[in-house]
Amino acid sequence: MIPRSRATGRAVAYQVFYRLPLPLRRRLVRLAVPKYIVGAVTLVHDAEAEGAGRLLLLRQPPGKGWTLPAGLLQRGEAPVVGAARELFEESGIRLSPRQLTPAVPNAVVHAKGWVDVVFTAEVPASTTELTVDGAEVFEAAWHPLDDLPRLTWPTARLLAYYGIGPLAGQFPPPVPDTTP
Length: 180
Fold this sequence. Notes:
The protein is an alpha+beta fold. The chain contains four helices and seven strands, in the order ααββββαβββα. Strand 5 and strand 6 form a beta hairpin. The relative contact order is 0.19. The model has no long low-confidence stretch (mean pLDDT 89).
C-alpha cells in the first residue's frame, strides 16, 4: 500500500503534468523513458524443404559470419513494412507486408538498447531468385537448419529465441507455456 502523503504527491504531480502543453509533455516523456533502436528481422524459410527445413542467411561485411535479412526502421515506418523493405534490399525477395507473419515472440528486447521486431515468411527456394549488391551483402544462400554455417553472435542469440541454431535450448531460457 502506498502511504497517503506519497499518493497525494503523485496525484498533484500528474495534475501538473497533464496541464502542460502537449509538446512539452512529449519532450519530458522522451527524456524520462529509455531509448531503443528498433530493427526489423525476417526469418525466411524454404517452403519446399524437407526434414528440419532451410533458412535464408546472408553473408555481410566483414563476412566472418552469416546473418538474417534485417535492418533499422526508418522514422515512422511500421515494423512489418521495414521488414519487407529490408528483405528486398538485401536479398532481392519482394514480399508484401501482408505476406509476413509476426514471429512468436514478435519482439526481442536486447540488453544493449535495441529491439528486434521479428517476422517469418515462406518462399519456394527453387523458384526464388536471390539478388545481392556485393557491397551491403556479399552472398545470400539457403542453409539447412540442422547444419547452419558460422553465425554472427547476435544472429545466433536471436535464433535461440526460436529454438534454432547452436544456442537453441541454452540461451535465452525457454518461454513458459501460459495456455490454460
